[in-house]
Amino acid sequence: MKNKQVAPSLRFKKANGEDYPPWEQRELKECLSFMKDGTHGSHSDASVGPLLLSAKNIKDGRLIIEEGKERRICQNEFEKIHKNFHLQVNDILLTIVGTIGESTKLLNAAGITFQRSVAFLRTKDFIDPDYLNTYIKTEDFQGALAQRKSTSAQPGIYLGDLASISISFPSMENQKKIGLFFGRLDELITLHQRKVESVKKLKKSLLQKMFPKEGETVPAIRFPGFTDAWEQRAFGNIAIRLSSLSNKSDLPRVEYADIISGEGRLNKDIYAKERVKPGVEFKRGQVLYGKLRPYLQNWLLPTFSGIAVGDFWVLEPKKLDSQFLYYLIQAPTFSSISNLSVGTKMPRADWKLISQASFRVPSFSEEQQKIGRFLSDLDSLITLHQRKVETLKKLKKALLQRMFI
């Protein structure tokens, strides 16, 4: 049933400068030629065969398949699942159980199926698949999903409730322009996301190779001109744990929630926070290490003075380059020891164990500095691409609000 005609505040115009016709509104079920959820029940795992994916494989508009973690099923089970229907290229995949509202367009339908946590949407000829995939990400559509979400132990949305959601759409020519525009924007976001992931993988590999493995005296990779074996020193002899409490009102506070896990950068303006909580005072060049649940990787090399609030160690380098110390605490050897935690529900790294543990460090400060600067440059590159991703996502969000009803 057609509803009133509408138009967004920001829209494309025709080649001659005229406006496109007003938009229409219809329920989603009127815009689809096919709608079904994924397979129900349990399936036997197979080492080879078609992929059996779930909502976890759809994130940020992409179909993500991690090598070695994918689940496969037998060919005969796959054929039973698809006896009465077949996924097609351009079908829209929408997550409807657990994480609700993530979507992507299917680019390759061969040898792939999904569990019931994903719905398959196939558009009629007056709805462009790219347009629908983009429309799903608008606040209106996401809000309609939230309103219809069940409140059971595992959140979900029924297909009947999904089908009743109203969507707005323009002419097909206009839909294609919108779909193409946001498709290119998504490609740009994905490009920078992949660059972030690529540099992160490179950094992880180098952290394994630029620090000696257990029982070895030199790293697998080092800068030219350095050949001496690294010295073995107790951590307590290369880093002092500071514990001077302070409540100075002129210093910013750093808490666990302020640090992006694994990236060592702040996610907010800490100077804008209320400055009342006491903690351990730190200065530029001292290293903050989150001892609570060390696997969360909350660490920071601050470029300012402040107060560390909560379960942080504030580490003062002792005859050691501060950047080198910062990356030493990220290396696999330190990580393995720090995760031998005390406590069960709230595990914390054990300072007595850490301080007595021995680590290899370069004899020459020049080698320490080179390693620190090199890995710092990698972090800067990660941050650069991550900020581009964040900027593009903000732009996309703003355009989704203005270019749709």
What report would you give on this structure?
This protein has 405 residues and is α+β, with helices and mostly antiparallel strands. The chain contains ten helices and 22 strands. It has helices at 28-31, 75-81, 129-135, 139-148, 159-163, 172-209, 322-328, 332-338, 351-356, 365-402, and strands spanning 24-27, 32-37, 51-53, 58-59, 62-63, 92-95, 103-105, 112-114, 118-123, 166-169, 231-234, 239-242, 245-246, 253-254, 259-260, 265-266, 279-282, 287-290, 299-300, 306-308, 312-317, 358-361. The strands form eight sheets. It has a four-stranded antiparallel sheet. A four-stranded antiparallel sheet has the order 12-21-18-19, covered by helices on one side. Strand 18 (287-290) and strand 19 (299-300) form a beta hairpin. Helix 7 (322-328) packs across helix 10. The longest helix is centred in the middle third of the chain and has 38 residues, at 172-209. It is elongated, with a radius of gyration of 27 Å. The two termini are 18 Å apart.
Short note summarizing the structure:
By secondary structure, the chain is of the alpha+beta class. Helices cover 32% and strands 19% of the residues.
